[in-house]
Design brief:
By secondary structure, this protein is of the alpha+beta class. The chain contains 22 helices and 35 strands. It is globular, with a radius of gyration of 31 Å.
Length: about 725
């Protein structure tokens, strides 16, 4: 073992030679060269066959004893240990259930459906419609993709996880392949995957010692690194085989590749091993799969609609924002985009005023000693921008909470002041990897509607209820639905259990009184306190997590924050406050991306950067058109006038394409009456011929829509 470990330790992960495969070059669309079946496939298989038989012999010798299998509804089934499988139980209930079955959960642990039960069991049978079933289904599909990649490219596999909408595999393409992955590889990969699916290759699980793992995967430096990093000496983990593929994997998996009905390769990109730019450049191939071909067709239609709504596309078309290589990951907001940005912040500021928040302004740059005191430096420094100033190290802030702690602690505080609600739109910077930057959804420079509430333990419940109401009002205004999860004390936590229990109970009561329904997410709280995770759903049914409400007991300890209690018998009359971290929009940049795609660029009046277009019928009324523009501008609306040489119909069509909420056509009659002929973007009945109303009445009608923050631009 020592000799093998010494050999594998010499394998370098920053050999830059493979980086050539990470970039497309001339001829990248050329046909793939003929790649021979890699020898390492047979090498792996020989070791697998040898050890798999030993494992099967051990299972055959295990004592068979009657067991009781308890289902979620309380009913029971009888079985035999080391023989009865979850699939047997499913078949005993109904053939249709067995056909839909993806994975089982045995005593709370995910379990292969063909793996024998070992004793009395609480059993859950999960299909694709469950989150865990979907994750396993896509994980198994990633193995099919990995099999196709090895056969097509002769490559070394790295990581192949399920993700939110499918799966991917990172691969190292050999130099002899001659080029990077391109779209011309999609069809051959899908053909190989389809062949594997038709063969109904079983997923076979084998437990191996670390020594055997290194022997099996010694040809692949990426797997060797993962084994040495993740598998302690003297322990073991599992591999799974399907067809010619054997991969390091904890599983579990679907019964066989035939359970995968529809499979497609979706896109490819470059990546780095373990996401570290210092490591080898790799190729990442994404895929998607479903148990029904109709689901695949529906997914592709969804992607077509999502592409039409892509905020990057709409951002260019509507001249809202752009990015430039001179400042990667930092958006340049153009005038129309800045209108949306400022409107969102004004919306939140109005709520701050009504809900008792005090807005503050804090520095952008701090000495790193602040981040060491807060605990962020140890866990977050790689994601921070740091610089040296007069021989001391400083860093741009990636979050506001430590600065707000300094503000709270700048003088003595009394219980009579609490709660104190600091709100901050300060600019934040996070050093995201260049490959992770994606439009406005993942940036390096951004602002948040960030706030921190300093309160007494007895005030947590009321403050949480207020935070939930704030969140509900904002998301309701946007037309979003949302789901709530309470994440409780994790295994590794700081503080006293009694304090955690009290805080979690207060959160439960707040959520119950809020009345929106919520789920328990046990053990997923932050190490410093429990939290409520809020997921919104947009017009396409996509889910995003933007808002967060987190309790924090640790920062008050780290910064020695305290307030006078009014008594002298406890802690010399002082207590620690509780901090509630909360944001509703989250990153304003990311929220603009979500809203752009949710509305498909058809902004509601109150948020729209283009609210009214005035269209004069002839040059005779140009002066009147400018007068109307000025009236509407003074009333607080974004207005333009089209005095181009285009025809009337062309001007109206251009305004419709630009998504103006209202088009006001003015001619001689309107000039005489002091009126406008209004066409409403969201009212089909007015598009052929608008309604004529006095300008003052039109302003009043728009004011009603704007103040109500109506999602539709229809006049009363």
């Amino acid at each position: 073992m020592a000799e093998l470990a010494e050999q594998t330790a010499k394998l370098a992960l920053n050999d830059k030679a493979p980086a050539k495969a990470g970039k497309a070059k001339k001829g990248s669309g050329a046909p793939a060269p003929q790649i021979e079946r890699p020898e390492f496939i047979e090498h792996r298989n020989r070791i697998f066959e040898e050890l798999y038989q030993i494992q099967q012999d051990k299972v055959a010798k295990m004592p068979r004893e009657p067991i009781v299998v308890t289902l979620p509804d309380g009913s029971t089934r009888e079985g035999m240990s080391w023989e009865t499988t979850p699939m047997d139980i499913a078949n005993g209930i109904s053939k249709s259930l067995a056909k839909r079955l993806v994975i089982a959960k045995v005593n709370g642990v995910l379990w292969d459906t063909l793996r024998p039960l070992e004793g009395n069991t609480n059993l859950e049978l999960l299909d694709f419609e469950t989150e865990e079933g979907k994750t396993v289904y896509w994980h198994s599909s990633a193995h099919v993709l990995g099999e196709a990649c090895e056969l097509h490219f002769g490559c070394h596999l790295c990581n192949g996880p399920p993700v939110e909408n499918g799966f991917y595999y990172d691969i190292s393409v050999p130099e002899e392949f001659g080029r990077a992955v391109s779209q011309t590889d999609y069809a051959p990969l899908e053909q190989l995957a389809t062949k594997a699916i038709k063969e109904k290759q079983p997923f076979q699980r084998l437990e191996l010692t670390k020594e055997d793992l290194l022997r099996m995967f010694g040809y692949n430096k990426y797997k060797v690194h993962l084994i040495n990093d993740k598998v302690p000496d003297g322990t073991s983990t599992t591999v799974y085989r399907c067809g010619p593929l054997i991969d390091l994997c904890r599983g579990p998996h679907v019964p066989n590749t035939g359970n995968i009905t529809a499979f497609a390769v979706m896109k490819n990109s470059a990546s780095y091993f373990l996401g570290n730019p210092e490591n080898d450049s790799l190729q990442r191939i994404y895929g998607i799969s479903f148990p029904d071909k109709k689901m695949m067709a529906a997914h592709k239609l969804f992607l077509e609609e999502a592409a039409k709504r892509d905020h990057r596309k709409i951002g260019r078309e509507q001249e809202l924002f752009f990015f430039h290589e001179m400042s990667p990951g930092s958006a340049f907001f153009l005038p129309h985009g800045t209108r949306i940005y400022n409107t969102l912040m004004s919306f939140i500021r109005e709520q701050y005023w009504q809900r008792g928040f005090e807005e503050v302004v804090s520095p952008n740059m701090f000495n790193v000693n602040l981040w060491k005191q807060s605990g962020h430096w140890d866990n977050y420094k790689d994601d921070m921008f740091d610089l040296e100033v007069e021989k001391e190290k400083f860093a741009l802030k990636p979050m506001n909470c430590p600065g707000h702690c300094l503000m709270f602690g700048m003088r003595d505080r009394s219980y009579r002041e609490l709660p104190i609600r600091f709100a901050d739109f300060g600019v934040l910077h996070r050093n995201e990897a260049s490959g992770a930057l994606t439009g406005l959804t993942r940036v390096r420079r951004f602002q948040q509607d960030d706030a921190h509430i300093f309160c007494m333990q007895s005030q947590v419940k009321d403050e949480m209820r207020g935070a939930l109401d704030f969140m509900s009002m904002v998301y309701g205004t946007f037309g979003f639905t949302f789901a709530l999860k309470l994440s409780t004390r994790p295994e590794k936590f700081l503080g006293e259990i009694a304090v955690w229990d009290q805080a979690e109970q207060q959160l439960r009561e707040s959520l119950d009184e809020f009345g929106a329904g919520w789920e328990l997410n046990p053990g997923d709280g932050a190490f410093y306190g429990p939290k409520v995770d809020i997921t919104i759903r947009d017009a396409l049914g996509r889910e995003f997590q933007c808002a967060t409400i987190q309790l924090d007991f640790q920062l008050p300890e780290r910064f020695h924050l305290q307030f006078r209690t009014g008594t002298a018998d406890e802690m010399s009359g002082f207590q620690r406050p509780v901090i509630i971290h909360r944001a509703v929009l989250g990153s304003v940049e990311r929220m603009i991306a979500i809203l752009t795609e949710n509305f498909a660029g058809k902004w509601p009046l109150w948020l729209s950067p283009r609210q009214v277009m005035v269209v004069p019928v002839t040059g005779v009324v140009y002066e009147y058109a400018e007068k109307v523009k000025q009236q509407l501008h003074e009333a607080g609306y974004f207005v333009d006038v089209d005095v181009s040489a285009d025809t009337l119909n062309k001007k109206i069509r251009n305004a419709e394409i630009a998504q103006y909420n209202f088009i006001c056509v003015v001619g001689a009659q309107e000039m005489e009456e002091g009126s406008v002929n209004v066409r409403c973007r969201d009212d089909v009945g007015t598009k052929a011929k608008g309604q004529t109303v006095p300008v003052t009445a039109f302003v009043q009608q728009m004011d009603v829509l704007k103040n109500a923050k109506s999602l539709e631009s229809k006049l009363a």
